[in-house]
């Protein structure tokens, strides 16, 4: 009696199998950047990353280009530090803005004018318009 092999054709094996790759180019649309070592689906590697020398397979730890990896890690830490500095400066500005009451009243006026401009500029969507049966003309339908 013939027994089909379920492992080769199962959706689970295709869903869980990943390959390790190191990126040689930036792919911002996939949120993948040069030097990064990551696990991706084999079809994604074949169809997108491996084309035009965009990435390479990593079979062992010795296959990883350490120079590219260190640049990638340095870029990541720099981006994290930059975002931390930005949040700290925003917190300081908010704290200083709350101390003086004159600035808050001016900001409130600015906010109301911005909101009114947005309301005027924002076009109504299809569901927000008042459509009646007189506005809609259906050929062959007579009321």
TrEMBL record:
Residue ranges, compositional bias (Basic and acidic residues): 77-95, 108-126
Segments for region (Disordered): 77-126
InterPro entries in alphabetical order: Ribosomal_bL9_N_sf
GO cellular component: ribonucleoprotein complex; ribosome
Alphabetically ordered keywords of this record: Ribonucleoprotein, Ribosomal protein
Family membership: Belongs to the bacterial ribosomal protein bL9 family.
Protein name stated in the entry: Ribosomal protein L9 domain-containing protein
